[in-house]
Specification:
It contains 6 helices and 29 strands. By secondary structure, the chain is mainly β.
Length: 468
């Protein structure tokens, strides 16, 4: 949701300027006016652009109460303008100019415009924020008052805000924004004009000027992994020179209970060794990589993992849902069945080793005369069984009666599960009836009798001919 002004009075749609609903290539119009186009200059690797995001401002005085009661929060429209953000230039940024604040005095119903300078802290996933609309993704932005600190004597306080950004692709970003210092040049430029809603000083453009002092991010809000695998839960942060890192904690919550998995405090001897979990402390201190690696994942590792990064004044957190999913193993026995009259045969479909519990099992039948598989409803299921490793198994039984069955035919067991990209189908084959047992003996006996009778008649006629 990039709100940027562009040349030719157009807007940017996926990197292409649009004027009155029609794509316009400004450079092409200019080339037609002045003559043949010159050879394009090399495209710079990075460009600085403004990123404007539609947000909601959540009032601090009702946030905790409503969160506890499950009610909806009191919100007000807001706009977050990230100024001069460095992004990779893909060749479609030539027409982008800086964001222009709408003219006019804000009233109580107008969106609150927060301008954020990020000269000292890089904004993570800036390209994803800039191109979210073009990629078909949504950006959810929420801003709230984090705290206010008293500066010196008097009632002057410096406001701090927390901006939480979530992209539908799974990226989450937390920005701690500092308002203007009391008695600073920024405040002098405000001319003591207060915002009608926030009651804090505004800029000449009637915006709230802030500075990004602390950012943290995660690439994933939800992950799915298999049993026995290793998975990395991404969590990173960056601080302005005026801020300092103090601690990191990883926690896991599941079904109402929680526990700490990893703790690190700056100045301590280092974290205690923990089985299965690892955080690279050197990367943590050097590059702000607070990611946690979980080894040998088991069913018990499923849950919500919370990354808590703290400075002496503030804390940012990210929650990552870890789901364990193991696909089932499917086997049908017997694989081949011979048709027998007056006999009921039972096919068994064994489904084992899957997690989580929910699984769907169905049967179909198909004969050479059928154009498609016919669903069967006479199957029955056993109860679920759980193994020591936490995985489940179940058995489905299908009875085939010779009175109603058609042979040859193929009977298939179909299994669907969240860990499968597509259902598993395993088949058993019912062979056509054969002449076996007493039916075969009767046939042989009748044929033998007929042969003897015919032979007797032939020999008798041959004997009469000799007498003559």
């Amino acid at each position: 949701m990039a709100g940027a002004a562009v040349l030719c009075g157009a807007a940017v749609l996926c990197g292409v300027p649009v004027l009155c609903g029609v794509p316009v290539l400004c450079g092409a119009l200019l080339a037609l006016a002045v003559g043949p186009a010159q050879a394009p200059a090399p495209v710079p690797l990075f460009r600085r652009v403004d990123i404007a995001l539609g947000c909601s401002y959540v009032w601090e005085d009702v946030r905790d109460l409503l969160r506890a009661s499950g009610g909806s929060s009191s919100q007000h429209p807001a706009t977050l303008v990230l100024r001069a953000i460095s992004v990779r230039d893909d060749g479609n940024l030539d027409d982008v100019t800086e964001y222009k604040v709408p003219l006019g005095n804000p009233d109580p119903s107008s969106p609150i415009v927060f301008e954020a300078s990020a000269q000292s802290v890089s904004i993570p996933h800036a390209e994803s924020l800039l191109h979210a609309d073009c990629a078909g993704e949504e950006v959810n932005c929420e801003i709230s008052l984090y705290s206010s600190q008293q500066a010196g004597e008097g009632l002057c306080r410096t406001p701090w805000f927390m901006a939480t950004l979530r992209i539908s692709s799974g990226i989450s970003i937390a920005l701690v924004l500092r308002g203007p210092h009391c008695g600073s040049r920024e405040e002098e430029e405000h001319d003591a004009t207060l915002h009608p809603k926030l009651r804090i000083p505004m800029s000449k453009e009637r915006t709230v000027l802030t500075t990004v002092e602390f950012q943290s991010s995660s690439r994933n809000t939800s992950l799915r992994t298999h049993l026995g695998s290793s998975v990395t839960l991404d969590c990173r942060f960056a601080l302005a020179p005026s801020s300092s890192f103090s601690s990191l904690e990883w926690r896991r919550q599941h079904r109402g209970s929680g526990r700490s998995l990893f703790q690190y405090q700056v100045g301590s001897t280092g974290p205690a060794a923990q089985p299965k979990v690892h955080v690279d402390v050197a990367e943590l201190a050097g590059s702000g990589d607070a990611s946690l690696t979980l080894q040998g994942v088991s069913v018990e590792d499923e849950g919500t993992y919370i990354c808590l990064v703290s400075t002496p004044l503030h804390q940012a957190q990210h929650s990552i849902q870890l789901h364990v999913a193991e696909p089932p193993r499917v086997r049908v026995i017997p694989a081949v069945v011979s048709f027998e009259r007056d006999v009921t045969t039972t096919l068994t479909c064994n489904i084992a080793g899957y997690y989580p519990l929910d699984v769907s099992v169905s049967w179909t039948q198909k004969t050479p005369e059928d154009n498609m598989e016919i669903p069967l409803s006479n199957a029955r299921l056993s109860s679920h069984r759980q193994s020591r490793d936490g995985t489940y198994s179940i058995t489905s039984y299908l009875s085939i009666s010779s009175a109603t069955a058609q042979a040859p035919a193929t009977y298939s067991c179909h299994v669907s599960h969240v860990a499968l990209a597509e259902p598993i189908s395993v088949s058993a084959h019912l062979k056509a009836p054969e002449q076996t047992g007493s039916e075969g003996l009767v046939g042989v006996l009748i044929a033998t009798i007929i042969f003897i009778v015919v032979l007797f008649i032939v020999l008798r006629r041959a004997g009469r001919g000799l007498k003559c």
